Amino acid sequence: MAYLDTDVRYCKGIGEKKAQLLNKLGVFTVHDLVSFFPRKYEDRSQFKPIALTCDGETACIRAIVADSPRLMRIRRGMELVKFRVVDESGAVDITYFNQPYVKDNIHKGQCLNFYGKIIGVGAKRTMANPVYETENAACGVTGRIVPVYRLTTGLSQKLMMSAVRQALDACGDELPEVLPESVRVKYQLAQTGYAYENIHFPVDFEGLELARRRLIFEELFLLACALGKVKGAHRRDDGIKLKPCDFTEFWSALPFKPTGAQMRAVSDAIRDMQSGTAMNRLVQGDVGSGKTLVAAALIWYAWKNGLNSAFMAPTEILAQQHYENLCNMLGGFGINVGLLTGAMTANQKREIKSALKDGTIDLIIGTHALFSDDVEYNKLGLVVTDEQHRFGVNQRSSLISKGDKPHVLVMSATPIPRTLALIIYGDLDISVIDELPPGRQKVDTFAVNEGYRVRLNGFIRKLVSEGRQVFVVCPMIEENEELPEGIKSAQEHAAQLQSYFPDLKVACVHGKQKAKEKNAVMADFVAGNIDILVSTTVIEVGVDVPNAALMIIENADRFGLSQLHQLRGRVGRGKHKSYCVLVSDTDNEVSEARLKIMTQTNDGFKISEEDLRLRGPGDFFGSRQHGLPAMHVADLCTDMNVLQTAQSAAQELLASDPELVKPEHEYLKNAVERLFELNADTMN
Ligand code: ADP
Ligand code: MG
Q1: Which atom, in ligand 1's list, is nearest to the CA of 291?
Q2: Helix extents (H) in 26-180
Q3: Rounded to the nearest whole angstrom, what is the distance from the C-alpha of residue 288 to the centroid of ligand 1?
Q4: CB 3.0 to 4.6 Å from 19: which of 9, 448, 484, 623, for a disulfide?
Q5: Would you say domain 444-601 falls under CATH 3.40.50.300?
Q6: Which tens digit of pLDDT belongs to each residue from 369-382?
Q7: Ligand 1: distance of its center to the CA of 292 in Å?
Q8: Collapsing DSSP states into helix, strand and coil, what is residue 555?
Q9: Distance from CA of residue 15 to its chain's centroid?
Q10: How far is the CA of 442 from the CAs of 330, 509, 569, 574, 608, in angstroms?
Q11: Which class is domain 248-275+290-412?
């Protein structure tokens, strides 16, 4: 492996400066370099007879230089090398601007390959500054499928190509075959050397396809093995075995009847908790599907068994809200509920921590503060995280490690297509809540443009005068990012609304405020003291304000569909008829189509599937929020079928060798470990 680990700066023709540029692209070692796959390819494999080229076509031709190149100075600072080339079918006049050296490199009678744009027809064909090379150039850029790499200023395609070429030549035989022979043969996958060669310099399109298929498989297989190992590691944990108990007391204390889906999720979990193995379950359900109740039932069950629970929320506001809800639901049974957040004073924290330690608190709700080093638990039997992709697997485990193999329930409101959930949550069992509580009103959704502004303001006025409250959400602007033309900043927009409605109470929550300030404004809104709350997406996660009946989203095209769906879920939570208005001046067809989906359905799963279809998973998931490593070749959307095959192959392999200790799995084991190392933040 020695050569593969070499720093790229020591590669021939690279050096310190170019190495720094490559580092910018995430390329540090020779291994990184050969794994830096092309972004796309140009098909320069066919030489076209000159007579068959069309005006404006980018083509590859092979022709003989018909006259000696002439150097002309057409005006000051402008030099021109000109000559004519011919093949059996026709002629092209070739010119190079400001490259006087071309005159000395090209000679009459030479046969050369050219690649460039043809302008003109018949005898008047010309090509300006085409790529040229001799027939048998070492790192050919004509007469073949040519890779196109992602670049950064200071790097050229040519440099990338020759660097990769040299790296491949030098390490070709050293590339480890991470796929076990049995898997490679069974799924008819190309060998590693062939794959790396052909993903960069394909012999033909078939070779490229074989290479791609193998590399996609490899990538997804590694991922599946890695996640499978995590799952296996959790699986073997013994868990506290809970005694059965009669839930009638719990259900009858509720103000409503649980839905069938809620019941199913609860009984899945009860089965886990009675099994003697630690529960590790994801409850996935759309916004408003009533996930909190599932958690409450299990917390109650743990309490009945003399066990305490911890409930972790992603934000202070949510922790506060869960605290209030769960106090209401569980306090009546005599369950002692506590709250622990970063915003509390040192004194308050100290008190809570000691109550936790001595077991006075039966259920603690909080933010990340729950797994600080100095927090100790007493008989921690159940850990619930309401995470919506915000906690990494490792954060979850640091809380889990506070108890003696507690049961774990993860709740997520981000609907993702099942096949993806399978791999993203590879370490969890899944219950889906696919049914909303009865009587839930559909939130009427409209997509409008600026022309609707006056009417929209009228609508705000009407609802507020009926006593309702209004959410207005503006896109989040990155710090230092200049406000693009036509984009509303939350603060400015709030000021505008305030001057339009001088008698109403308008407030704003945005990213630059301190947590304390944000919480104060939110609390004011929840208490009904604010009519219109303008914010960036901080309110995205589960805040409950039943009196809010209108959600306005400005520049709606800047949001992901799943995000829009989450935001819309903030209204329609009470008894009032609710509305969502998506304001956008986009004339982009895909954006329009996406907004239209929002107006047509309230089903989060349908929306996420459509979104995935329209945009592809890269955008869909945003900046790696899913906690999966970035994919080099695989596309989690279009390569779904490979994903399934790779996953079953991984399961099969892990069943026979869970720790990958067999000698034939040595390289695979290394690669899986490398994947963990590179993604320590999300996967451990
Ligand atoms: P989410 O899944 O988004 O976390 P919540 O647990 O916050 O949803 O529940 C949303 C609302 O629905 C809450 O106000 C809750 O009291 C109510 N709710 C939950 N389950 C039911 C049910 N079975 N019948 C009626 N209302 C319910
Ligand atoms: Mg919730």
Answers
A1: 2
A2: 30-34, 102-105, 157-171
A3: 5
A4: 9
A5: yes
A6: 888 888 999 999 99
A7: 7
A8: coil
A9: 34
A10: 29, 27, 10, 12, 18
A11: alpha beta
